[in-house]
Write a sequence for this structure.
């Protein structure tokens, strides 16, 4: 009986931490190079990233903007006081840099690859959010074509 009690105490002692520790698989994250933007209004922004030139002076924003509503929506993207607006059709998707849509050129960002750039996103009547978007370079083959031309 004593050996059973010692075995149970040992098992509980060595695995007890897992009973209260958060499981990594339950923590939301963006499994890609870019980031998913939290609630910014009715539009959803997925895998947002910026591909910059070597000096980080200019960058191309790549992202998918999803409109699940029955009405067209406008997304306002703000960077360093400059606003860009994009119209997204009802039940539609606009993918910057893909499907015949040009990436959104952000001039004068002065953010080197490897850093993050604070970008604001607002759509519909939402209050919008400011989010740190990763700035990458063209060293990865699939991003090389998105480096802004000099």
């Amino acid at each position: 009986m004593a050996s059973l009690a010692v075995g149970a105490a040992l098992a509980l002692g060595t695995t007890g931490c897992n009973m209260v520790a958060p499981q990594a698989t339950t923590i939301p994250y963006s499994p890609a190079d870019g980031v998913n933007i939290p609630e910014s209004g009715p539009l959803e922004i997925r895998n947002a990233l910026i591909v910059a030139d070597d000096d980080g002076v200019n960058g191309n924003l790549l992202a998918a903007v999803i409109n699940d509503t029955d009405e067209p929506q406008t997304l306002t993207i703000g960077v360093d006081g400059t606003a860009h607006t994009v119209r997204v059709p009802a039940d539609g998707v606009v993918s910057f840099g893909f499907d015949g849509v040009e990436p959104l050129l952000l001039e004068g960002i002065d953010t080197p690859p490897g850093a993050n750039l604070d970008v604001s996103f607002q759509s519909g009547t939402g209050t919008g959010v400011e989010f740190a978007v990763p700035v990458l370079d063209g060293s990865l083959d699939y991003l090389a074509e998105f480096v802004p031309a000099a």
Summary: Helices lie at 2-15, 17-20, 141-144.
